[in-house]
Design goal:
single chain; 0% strand; 2 domains; mainly alpha; elongated
């Protein structure tokens, strides 16, 4: 729209000029902002304050660079919403540090500073409007709702024929799902109650079975030990016989080898 192409450079002009002046001559602004910068740094947590530069002139130059860069982006229509938001943020320290009219005792200076303060407030309002301007495009909230509706439609389309939302088949699926969940809940409650009632009986039965198994193992342990004792000599004799047989075969093999060599 032609209006945006005219209004954006007009709004950006003051920031480009002010930022360029801050970059070229930061000393005067740094002296004015010294107390404000010091109090602001003291109000920050120590870990954050340690990471922020403490040199007033450097901070003035950084703020000036933000204003020049944001002003150029806004004037050329490149990322205008982000540029407008950045420029609005740069106005906060500039306004409070450069125009503290409440500290002035001279009526003339107080009026001048108040005028400058209100001018910056007005500029911040215009920048916030520019940051919210979507150029006629749908907002993020509207696009998000549309994406959600499209996803719902895609899921509905993937269902079997006749099982669309609002149809009798769809209502039947929903109703059966609820019935199944309700029945499952009732069955689980019945099973839990039955298990709770039968728990003492099950525990007593398990105790009796474990006692019976222990007694049987104790009764058979003597028999098992006696059986092992009876079979041990036989096993030992068999092992000795096998060892003697293996030794005889080895000796016969050595005799054959010697005869073959000689």
């Amino acid at each position: 729209m032609i209006l945006r192409r005219i209004a954006r450079p007009m709004l950006a002009t003051v920031f480009i000029a002010s930022g360029a002046d801050a970059l070229r001559k930061p000393t005067g602004r740094a002296e004015m902002a010294g107390d404000f910068i010091e109090s602001s740094l003291n109000a920050l947590p120590e870990n954050v304050s340690a990471a922020v530069p403490h040199d007033p002139e450097l901070l003035v130059r950084i703020n000036g660079a933000v204003q020049v860069g944001g002003g150029l982006l806004l004037a050329t229509g490149k990322f205008p919403r982000i540029a407008a938001l950045g420029l609005a943020g740069s106005l906060v320290p500039t306004t409070f540090a450069g125009h503290p009219f409440w500290q002035e005792t001279d009526p003339a200076k107080r009026n001048l500073q108040r005028t400058q303060f209100l001018k910056n407030v007005s500029l911040a309002g215009g920048l916030l409007i520019a940051a919210a301007d979507t150029e006629g495009k749908p907002s993020l909230a509207w696009r998000g709702k549309r994406k959600a509706s499209a996803a719902t439609a895609a899921v509905t389309a993937a269902l079997p024929v006749g099982a669309k939302a609002g149809s009798s088949a769809w209502d039947s699926i929903v109703e059966r799902t609820h019935e199944g969940a309700s029945a499952l809940g009732e069955k689980s409650e019945e099973a839990a109650e039955l298990l709770r009632d039968r728990a003492p009986e099950l525990a007593e039965a398990a105790r009796q079975r474990s006692t019976e198994w222990a007694e049987k193992i104790g009764d058979r342990s003597a028999e098992v030990a006696e059986l092992i004792g009876d079979r041990a000599p036989k096993v030992a004799d068999t092992a000795k016989s096998l060892a003697a047989t293996a030794q005889d075969k080895a000796e016969a093999g050595r005799r054959r080898w010697r005869k073959a060599v000689s």
